[in-house]
């Protein structure tokens, strides 16, 4: 009873692993960018706008 040789398994598995890694990596990158980073950037910008308005109001009062 001979065991059939396994041919091409490594190559097929490599492309599957590479495709999954790239797909999941890009998806995670988009999720971070649009789910966290842009919201944090907007909060930061709003904070600086608020500070600038307060600074301008204080300068007017003087």
UniProtKB/TrEMBL annotation:
<keyword id="KW-0999">Mitochondrion inner membrane</keyword>
<protein>
    <recommendedName>
        <fullName>Cytochrome c oxidase subunit 9, mitochondrial</fullName>
    </recommendedName>
</protein>
<dbReference type="GO" id="GO:0016491">
    <property type="term" value="F:oxidoreductase activity"/>
</dbReference>
<dbReference type="GO" id="GO:0006123">
    <property type="term" value="P:mitochondrial electron transport, cytochrome c to oxygen"/>
</dbReference>
<keyword id="KW-1133">Transmembrane helix</keyword>
<dbReference type="GO" id="GO:0004129">
    <property type="term" value="F:cytochrome-c oxidase activity"/>
</dbReference>
<comment type="similarity">
    <text>Belongs to the fungal cytochrome c oxidase subunit 7a family.</text>
</comment>
<comment type="function">
    <text>Component of the cytochrome c oxidase, the last enzyme in the mitochondrial electron transport chain which drives oxidative phosphorylation.</text>
</comment>
<feature type="transmembrane region" description="Helical">
    <location>
        <begin position="14"/>
        <end position="36"/>
    </location>
</feature>
<dbReference type="InterPro" id="IPR014368">
    <property type="entry name" value="Cyt_c_oxidase_su7a_fun"/>
</dbReference>
<keyword id="KW-0472">Membrane</keyword>
<keyword id="KW-0812">Transmembrane</keyword>
<keyword id="KW-0496">Mitochondrion</keyword>
<comment type="pathway">
    <text>Energy metabolism; oxidative phosphorylation.</text>
</comment>
<keyword id="KW-0560">Oxidoreductase</keyword>
<dbReference type="GO" id="GO:0005743">
    <property type="term" value="C:mitochondrial inner membrane"/>
</dbReference>
């Amino acid at each position: 009873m001979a065991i059939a040789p396994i041919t091409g398994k490594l190559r097929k598995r490599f492309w599957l692993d590479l495709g999954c890694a790239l797909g999941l990596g890009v998806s995670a990158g988009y999720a971070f960018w649009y789910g966290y980073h842009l919201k944090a950037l907007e909060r930061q910008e709003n904070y600086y706008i608020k500070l600038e308005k307060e600074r301008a109001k204080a300068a007017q009062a003087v």
